[in-house]
Amino acid sequence: MWCDKKVREINFLTWNTQLYEMGNSLNEEQVVKKIDMLTFKIVINKVKEFLDSKNEAVAILQEIPFKCNIDGFNEHILFSDFFEFFPDDKYVMLYNISSKSQIKMTVVLAKKMGLEELIYRKNNELNNNMCVSFGIKDLDLSIIGVHPHNANELLKWLQVWGFPDIMLGDFNAGDYKKRCEDSMFKVNRDNYRKLISGYTDICKGQMTRRTVLSNGFVYETPIDHVLIKNSSELTKKYQCKNVKIEINEDNVSDHYPIYFKLLCLDEADVDYLKKALKYENDIAENELVIADKNSDDIQKQQAQKNLDYYNQKWRIGRKVNMHIYDMLLAKSGNNLYKNRPASQTTDLQEQREFFEKLSLANQIHVIGEVLKLFKCASASANLKLLDKGNACGVIKVSNNILKFKQCVLINQSPTGVFEQEVDLMKL
């Protein structure tokens, strides 16, 4: 039944495990790392615990060892051990073999739901040993787990195979600056900026990789990302929340695991909104009759009968309203709306309990007003029923840039080859 329906949540983990470095020669100068089974088991158990503790969960893992390059590219001993931890009768495992000499791969893992598989391979999209294209059961989503050598490599791949709804993993690139930058680093950053055009990074530039230098200095960089396409159709159906970057100090990997949840707004939610908003006034009138001291018993009984009909016919009720409110709250705080000027996310969060106590009709009215905040316009929402203003969310543009530390105008040629930056603060 609709009123008992729970929000579908898909839990995600993306993590560069660094496991392939054990038992492989990375270069002529570096000594081959010995295989450390303790470290291996720590990584595997963390992934396994994540998958087994969630109802629906997907792990996207980079740098899983496949071949060993010091003994003729035979299968890496850790690869067979990896399989033993995730047997195919309990887990779905997706990976690609694109070369006989590949020493590492990206792997997508999910726990089976009885006889059903949560994930499936998308064969007509980008697939190589560093990238895996996949979908989620019953969801119209295109997802790619990525691990390119640099942003330009991934950009070239996607220009051929197409840009997915979600891409996540180790990008080996980010929109950040270093004290000592060479030309290659700048090019990589510029290509990453081109790559993310039209996407929102829900990691918000947080540090995801830790490098310990020879002098003991710890250097962190934001090169792991979760990118969600800025599509109105996409954000209507899906929202991300509870993004967590686990700052681990156990040194099992030089990358931090990234966790997040994907909330799925299905067609039943959309249909409910249409029905609830259509009959809002009628519901309000019946609630007034019940609350009116001058109404007789027959009038009150008929009014209650009308409300019961809406609940039985379309499940219009307070419990479902709370579900919708939480969905809109998550949507407001994530994806392309998170940086919206005049955002009402904080107010909506603070007034959640206030909303819960409202009458059925008033809850529906508030939901209708909150929906205005997601229009592609400077619309306002009347949130007086939440004890807030009657023109919330109005976007006002200021011509005062003095409060900003930097304001740069970028002139770029259509090809992106030529670029000029003008610091408006210095004019």
Run of helices and strands: EHEEEHEEEEEHEHEEEEHEEHHHHHHHEE
Decide which structural class fits the backbone. Answer: alpha+beta
**N- to C-terminal separation?**
63 Å
How many helix segments? Answer: 12
Question: Percent of residues in beta strands?
Answer: 15-25%
CATH level-1 class of the largest domain: Alpha Beta
* Order of neighbouring strands in the sheet with most strands: 5-6-2-1-16-15
Count of individual beta strands: 18
What does the radius of gyration come to?
26 Å
Reported by name, the CATH topology of the largest domain is Deoxyribonuclease I, Chain A
Q: What's the CATH superfamily of the largest domain, by name? A: Endonuclease/exonuclease/phosphatase
Biggest sheet features: 6 strands, mixed
Oligomer: single chain
Fraction in helix: 25-40%
CATH architecture of the largest domain: 4-Layer Sandwich
Number of domains: 2
Low-confidence segments, ≥5 residues, pLDDT <50? 1-5
> Could you tell me the mean pLDDT?
87
- Morphology: globular
